[in-house]
Automatic annotation (TrEMBL):
Start-end of Polar residues biased regions: 189-196
EC number: 2.7.7.18
Protein name (Swiss-Prot/TrEMBL): Probable nicotinate-nucleotide adenylyltransferase
Acetylation as UniProt keyword: no
UniProt function note: Catalyzes the reversible adenylation of nicotinate mononucleotide (NaMN) to nicotinic acid adenine dinucleotide (NaAD).
Organism: Goekera deserti
Domain Cytidyltransferase-like residues, every copy: 1-160
Pathway: Cofactor biosynthesis; NAD(+) biosynthesis; deamido-NAD(+) from nicotinate D-ribonucleotide: step 1/1
Cell inner membrane found in the keyword field: no
First-to-last residue of the parent protein present: 1 to 196 of 253
Assigned keywords, A-Z: ATP-binding, NAD, Nucleotide-binding, Nucleotidyltransferase, Pyridine nucleotide biosynthesis, Transferase
Taxonomy of the source species: Bacteria, Bacillati, Actinomycetota, Actinomycetes, Geodermatophilales
Top-level taxon in the UniProt lineage: Bacteria
Length: 196
């Protein structure tokens, strides 16, 4: 499962866990992006912070792991490169690429989309606010699955921290603490305290 994971949240974790259960996967490898070409319009937190938050979030699940293939890459991340590297590291593994409804809609625009479907089976999961459709995708290339709806996004988590609103229960406890410790997503101005 690839992502910016800025920060990783429970929507990501539920998606991974559901797909692992439905497809009987032995392992889910979370792959934080290095330099995401699709997000060059905004500041992305340092790769090392996103990598560590993903490690913290997945540490308690023996089937979850985190890969540095994209974090350690010098060039922008393309999914075809990620899958090629993972295939090289695990030549005998059957690869699945887990993606949310919003990212699935962009697959056809992804580089080397034909090769992508040779490298992995794609699993598209439902995500509140997005329509899950495979109309433009090659027939049979993508499995669509419905997962418990969690209307959580990293964008909202970042904005919440910036406004001084809590992200408890949207992201794992250790990630709340890591965000605070590193001062991530703060807009600079101290927030006013509410209440009487
Ligand atoms: P941002 O708001 O910064 O884009 P995000 O919440 O979309 O962050 P990403 O790191 O962009 O998180 O997403 C990684 C993958 O997880 C994508 O395939 C995305 O579609 C999927 N995903 C993210 N949030 C959810 C969710 N709540 N439910 C299902 N899938 C999700
Ligand atoms: Mg996103």
């Amino acid at each position: 499962m690839g992502g910016t994971f800025d920060p990783v949240h429970h929507g990501h974790l539920v998606a991974a866990s559901e797909v692992a259960g439905l497809f009987g996967l032995d392992e889910v490898v979370f792959v934080p992006t290095g330099l995401p070409w699709q997000k060059s319009d905004r500041e992305v937190s340092p790769a090392e912070d996103r990598y560590l938050m993903t490690v913290i979030a997945t540490a308690s699940n023996p089937r979850f792991s985190v890969s540095r293939v994209d974090v350690d890459r010098d060039s922008p991340t393309y999914t075809v490169d990620t899958l090629t590297d993972l295939h090289r590291q695990r030549p005998d593994a059957e690869l699945f690429f887990i993606t949310g409804a919003d990212a699935l809609a962009q697959i056809v625009g992804w580089r080397d989309s034909d090769r992508l479907f040779d490298l992995a089976r794609f699993v598209g999961v439902t995500r509140p606010g997005y329509q899950l459709e495979d109309t433009d995708l090659p027939a049979g290339a993508v499995s669509l699955v419905e997962i418990p709806a969690l209307a959580i996004s990293s964008t909202d988590c970042r904005e919440r921290v910036g406004r001084g609103m809590p992200v408890w229960y949207l992201v794992p406890d250790g990630v709340v603490q890591y965000i605070e410790k590193r001062g991530l997503y703060r807009t600079g101005r101290p927030q006013q305290r509410a209440g009487t």
